[in-house]
Amino acid sequence: MLDQVLGMLAEGGVHTPAELANRLDVSERLVEHMLADLSRMGYLRSVSSATCQALPPDDAGPCADCPLSRACAVCEPGGQVWALTQKAFR
Amino acid sequence: MSEISSLRGGAMSVGAGHSAAPRHNPTHSSSQRETALSEERVITVALAGQPNVGKSTVFNMLTGLNQHVGNWPGKTIEQKTGTYRYNDTTIQLVDLPGTYSLTANSPEEQVARDFIIKEQPDIVVAIVNAATLERSLYLLAELVWLPVPIVLGLNMVDVAEREGYRVEPHVLEAALGLPVVPIIATRNQGIRELVQAVDILVRDPLRYAPRRPEIREDHQAVLDEIESLITGYVPSPYPSDWVALKLLEGDIEITRMIREQLPPDHWERVHNILKQHEDAILAVAGGRYEWIGRMMRAAVEQPRVGQVTLTDRLDRVATHPFLGLLVLVGILALVFWLTYTIASPLQGWLDIYVVQGGAELVRGALAGAPPWLVGLLADGVITGAGTVLTFLPILIIFFAILGLLEDVGYMARAAYVMDRFMHAMGLHGKSFLPLFLGFGCNVPAVAGARIIDSPRARLLTIQLAPLVPCTARMAVVALLTPAFFGRGAALVAWGLVLLNLIILAVVGTVVNRLVFKGTHGAFIMELPLYHIPNGRTIGMFVWGNTTAFLRKAGSIILVVSVIVWALSVFPGPGLENSVIGYLGLLLAPIGQLMGLDWQPMVALVTSFAAKENAIATLGVLYGGGEEATGLGATMAASIPPAAALAFLAVTMLFIPCAATLATIRQETGGWRWVVFNVGLLLVISFGVGILIYQGAALIGWGV
User: Fold this and answer.
1) Do B448 and A54 touch (CB under 8 A)?
2) Do A71 and B132 touch (CB under 8 A)?
């Protein structure tokens, strides 16, 4: 099943756990569990933290001047964005 | 679900003086123990489970005061043991550390699996949380491979039911092939049945026939081969099939153990197989997830009502590749329509009565003062920075609607749908995240491109980032469109945003073909649940952003307003002999191609410091009229619709602000790419502006 998840991700584009769960006929929570596991195995990496950490340092925070910072789906602490690693492509 | 009964207090044993410690003699098998203690049986039961599933509650409920707390040998991990008396049986309970799996990633996992394998308790009671069964079953998927019978304690069935999950214990029992007992540990319900199930299984171990998760079919032959190579060399009491599985999983401890046990030629062969199947962990863990999926489908009814389903239902439309895009476009149109309908009349009123009126008041009050001072205050400060402030109602409404969309949970969907749109246009992959950040501000969009590994792809994403309409540009368009287009403003503003996205997608498609060479980047975004918006949260969002805008108006915009005024007066006399006048003359030929006078062209130049300066500049350059008719009316009278449309399009596509260019310099390590970006955007923005005006002229509209 994990290779099916990786296969779907290799199609490219943005996916949601709900969409993957629907395609695999399992619950969304199981997909989230699998994503966390794939991340531990090194096939996925959390890019939201990497992206937001890449922003220039600022006393008031890197996104202080951005009016959408609180609405940001990328740097929002509750959300997670995952990307495939080179290991997954191999 | 079967009724769960409570464990009566009388069933709790005393057992004082019994050693609560488990036996640590692996050679002392269960049957020997039973023979030796035919009158009073002593059995060992290990309690296993993930953290926070109620394992300790079950342990405390059974042992009461008869427990002993110490440390696991050689570890700093707490070891809890205790006794419980059931009929003629003394149960020695061992509370294993809470673990998510048995992969020996942590000392807790190591302790748990070592105890089960080496000490071989008579029964393992696996406690799972019925409300998060998917997660809990993963540990069980590993436990069923170990040579100890398991009884499953299905805890928190009440919580699961409250959350809309209906677990069928009998179906789960049949699917798993092992006893399943529903319990509510905190209410002492079902604990007696759990002990009963343990007792029955100890007396009749042949009843135990678990259905184990299988390795993915294409790896079965590999697993068999490894098992055949290691059989006979696996030290007791490790089961060969489990060891073979762990080798394929890449378990460091088991690999080390087998390497020491195997003859060198055997190890060489095993090692070669493992090297060839480095990704076998996917086959092993994937098999477990398939097994969990089967169990869940068989025994668990997912929630049918409530928030989750509402989110699912809404997302069927909001995240649909086509419908989702329509919803996004519709919401965008609604944002502008609401903004203009509610706030534009207020802005017009403020412009006429506060700005123009204020300027007149200053002129009157300072009648005897030097003309330069009157000009500075009335034309520079009030009609410059003051004009920007009249747009505050528009911004408050704009931010209130954005805040509402954020608080409801829509913004993440907008990002998701946007990528689908870009995907359809051929632009996708790793540039998505940085570009998405650009909707807030182009600075983080440029800086965020660092996540792209390829330097070439990173560079081109940086070049594209300023094409994303940031909120400052959106605000300028939100402010200026009603001045030119009145009732049609919402449609025009909406079209301008769309135009930016289409140009971004077209440029992106070219970039994708040339640079990314069609490689597919993939992302998974966790979308939050929709929820009822909170007035206070939205209020804080509006307050934070409005005060930030006011700070900007009181600093950079005020300074630029004064500079623009000064440059429009000196050396003089008259505007045509001022520095701004000369700059206007320089820019006039390009402006003429778009039907624009020099004033809007100068506004574009000043927007370089901050996008909002365009408004302040227009305020200074158009606001000094004799009659207090308001900036909007003056501009509408001076700029024909086709030229206004061209000006707004150029504003949206123009070179980014100074902060973004500084970030481009920082990220690319030189001025070369800054100059390139300025050149690229000048060509694109003026090109589009000229096309719009000349196209309109061709069909005879608004010139």
Assistant:
1) yes
2) no
**Phi and psi dihedrals of B46, rounded to 5?**
-100, 135
Residue window 119-158, chain B: list those with CB within 8 Å of chain A.
132, 134-135, 138
pLDDT value for B8: 39
Q: In this predicted complex, what is the ipTM? A: 0.76
Q: Which of B621, B635, B646, B634 is nearest to B702 (CA)?
A: B646
B522 touching A (Cβ < 8 Å):
yes
Q: What is the rounded CA–CA span in Å between residue B618 and residue B2?
A: 76
Look up the domain containing A35 and give its range. Answer: 2-54+66-89
CB contact under 8 A, B524 and A18: no
A-B CB pairs within 8 A amount to 201
Banded pLDDT at B452 (limits 50, 70, 90): low
Rounded-to-integer distance, Cα B254 and Cα B113, Å: 12
H or E element, residue B560 = helix B558-569
* Segment B230-241, tens digit of pLDDT: 988 989 889 999
Q: Report CB contact under 8 Å: B526, A32.
A: yes
Match 């909001």 to its residue by tokens. Answer: B318
User: Which comes out higher in pLDDT, residue B654 or B332?
Assistant: B654
What size, in residues, is chain A? 90
At residue B418, the pLDDT reads 72
With contact defined as beta carbons under 8 Å apart, do B534 and B407 qualify?
yes
What's the angle, vertex CA B168, arms to CA B166 and CA B174, rounded to 5? 155
B430 Ramachandran zone, left/alpha/beta (phi>0; psi -120 to 50)? alpha
Residue B473 forms contact with A (CB below 8 Å): no
Q: Is the Cβ pair B430, A83 closer than 8 Å?
A: yes
**pLDDT-above-90 percentage for chain B:** 20
Of B500 and B573, which is predicted with more confidence?
B500
Which one has a higher pLDDT value, B444 or B446?
Answer: B446
The reply to whether residue A30 touches residue B437, judged by beta carbons under 8 angstroms, is no
| Reported pTM | 0.63
Is the Cβ pair A55, B429 closer than 8 Å?
A: no
In a domain, residue A61? The reply is: no
Compare all CA atoms of chain A with the CA of B428 and give the residue at the minimum distance: A13
Q: Which CATH architecture has domain B217-304?
A: Orthogonal Bundle (1.10)
Per-residue pLDDT of A7-20, as tens digits, reads 888 777 778 888 88
A59 located within any domain: no
| Residue of B176 and B38 predicted with greater confidence | B176
Those of residues 243-302 in B touching chain A at CB distance below 8 A are: 281-283, 285-287, 289-290, 292-293, 296-297, 302
Under an 8 A CB cutoff, do B447 and A54 touch? Answer: yes
* CATH assignment of the domain containing A37: 1.10.10.10
Q: Give the pLDDT confidence score for residue B182 in this predicted structure.
A: 94
Rounded distance between C-alpha atoms, residue B55 and residue B46, angstroms: 11
Chain B residue numbers touching A79 (CB-CB < 8 A) = 412, 525-528
CATH superfamily of domain region B9-207 = P-loop containing nucleotide triphosphate hydrolases (3.40.50.300)
pLDDT top residue among B631 and B11: B631
Q: CB–CB of B663 and A41 under 8 A? A: no
Counting the structural domains of chain A, the total is 1
Q: B153, B130, B144: which is closest to B208 by C-alpha?
A: B144
User: B residues 368-407 near A, CB within 8 Å?
Assistant: 399, 402-403, 405-406
Given a cut of 50, the residues of chain A with pLDDT beneath it are 57-60, 62, 77-78
Domain boundaries, chain B: 9-207, 217-304, 323-699
